[in-house]
Amino acid sequence: MALNGKAAVVTGAVMGIGKAITEILLKNGAKVALLDVNETAGKSLIEVLNKEYGPDRTLFLNCNVESEEQIKAAFRKTSETFGGIDILCNNAGILNENTWEKTVSINMMGVIRGTYLVLEHMSKLSRGRGGVVVNTSSMAGLGPLPSCPVYTATKHGVVGFTRAMAAASTASGYGIRFNVLCPGFVQTNLFSAIKSNLGQFSHLADATQQLMDVLGIIDMSDVAESVLEMVTDETKNGEACLISPKGREYVNFPSFQ
C-alpha cells in the first residue's frame, strides 16, 4: 500500500510510540487524525506538524478509547475531513497493576471497540475501501512479564484478537489486513513509570530492572519503522512482529489447520 493520500487514525497519538507512528505516516505521505485524551499536548503537537506538513494533513481529536461515542464521533469526523479511513493504529495503552480494571478497559477493550467501530468506515462490506489495522501489543503479549500480570494478559489478548480478526477478514471479505506490534522495552513515559505502577507486584521491580538490563532498550523510531512495513507490505496479514535491540522478527505460531 502506497501511503500518498491515504487517511490514517492513530490512538494515543501525541506522545511516545503513537507520536512516532504519526510522524512516520506523515513523512510517507499519509494524512493522520491524532486521537488522544491529552488535549494540551495534542494541540501543541498539531501546531508543529501543521508547520511541517500543512494544516490539511493532520487533525487532532480529543478522544478516550473507553468511550464508544467518542470513538464513533472521531471516526466520523476523520472520514468527513479526509474522505474516508484507510489505516487504523490502535496504539493507546497504559501499564498500571494498581488500576487493573482500567488497564483491561484501555488496552484490551479499547482495541476491540476501535476495531469494530472502524469496520463501518473501512470494510468493503460497508462500502469502505479496505485497508489495514495495526494494533500495539508488547513482548508481554508473547511471553509473561511477572511483575505485570494484568498488562501481560491484555497484551496477549491483543495478539490473539488481531490474529483472529485477520482470519475473519479474509474469510468474510472485509478487505482489511490486521497486524500486531510486539515491542520490547521502549524508551517512553510508560516505560519510565513502570516501577511505580506495579501495585502488589512492586517487590518484583528489581527483577524487572534486571530483565531490562539483559534485553536492552529500543527506540520509538524502531517501532514506527515496523508499523510502516506492516502498513505498506500487502503480504503482511495476521502477523505479529517482535521488536528488540536485535531487530525485527515475525513470530511463527503453531497452526491448527
Q: Overview of this structure, please?
A:
This protein has helices at about 15-25, 40-55, 70-80, 100-120, 150-170, 190, 205-215, 220-230; strands spanning about 5-10, 30-35, 60, 85-90, 130-135, 175-185, 240-245, 245-250. α1 packs across α8, α3 runs parallel beside α4 (about 100-120) and α4 (about 100-120) runs parallel beside α5. The model has no long low-confidence stretch (mean pLDDT about 95). α1 links the parallel β1 (about 5-10) and β2. The protein is built from eight helices and eight strands; from the N terminus they run βαβαβαβαβαβαααββ. An eight-stranded mixed beta sheet has the order 3-2-1-4-5-6-7-8, sandwiched between helices. The protein is globular, with a radius of gyration of 17 Å. By secondary structure, the protein is of the alpha/beta class.
